[in-house]
Amino acid sequence: MYELMIKMNFDAAHKLCGYRGNCANVHGHTWIVEVTVAGSKLNSLGLLIDFKELKKIVGRIIEQLDHSYLNELPAFAHGGEMSNPTAENLSCYIYKKVKAELNSNYPEVKLSRVNVWESPTSCASYWEE
Ligand SMILES: [Zn+2]
């Protein structure tokens, strides 16, 4: 198997509703997003997927998050499918969007995992078995 990882980042604000502590206040992070894909078959150039193409896919997704107030996005807003824009929920949110893109455009490339770092020492991951 081959595995590739790309790393991108975006800046966005959030707050954690219902949290007791200073994370309940609006604050920002430079979120680091790591996307890992895997596959066993390389193309004729010896690539699993062009890093540039993977970055384009992830870039289109995080572009919608960049410089936003994450709590206002439909997925995280009151009544949305996710309770709060935590690193955990963001990793799942990004995973599902990247997975849909890969499934339709690169069916042989499997999404392994999405890591979301909210600080240099705190990371949440989402993957599906
Ligand atoms: Zn935070």
Report on this model:
This protein is an alpha+beta fold and 129 residues long. The chain has a single domain (2-126), classed as 6-pyruvoyl tetrahydropterin synthase/QueD (Tetrahydropterin Synthase, Chain A). It has two helices and five strands, in the order E-E-H-E-H-E-E. It has helices at residues 51-63, 87-105, and strands at residues 2-14, 27-39, 68-69, 110-119, 122-126. It has a five-stranded mixed beta sheet. The two termini are 16 Å apart. The model has no long low-confidence stretch (mean pLDDT 95). Bound molecules: zinc ion.
Bound molecules: zinc ion
Which radius of gyration do the C-alpha atoms yield?
A: 15 Å
CATH class bucket: Alpha Beta
Structural class: alpha+beta
Uncertain ranges: none
Element string (H = helix, E = strand): EEHEHEE
Here the CATH topology equals Tetrahydropterin Synthase, Chain A
**General form:** elongated
Oligomer classification = single chain
Task: State the total count of DSSP E strands.
Answer: 5
Helicity, as a percent range: 10-25%
Strand numbers in spatial order across the main sheet: 3-1-2-4-5
The portion of residues forming beta strands comes to 25-35%
**N→C terminal distance:** 16 Å
Look at the structure and name the CATH superfamily: 6-pyruvoyl tetrahydropterin synthase/QueD
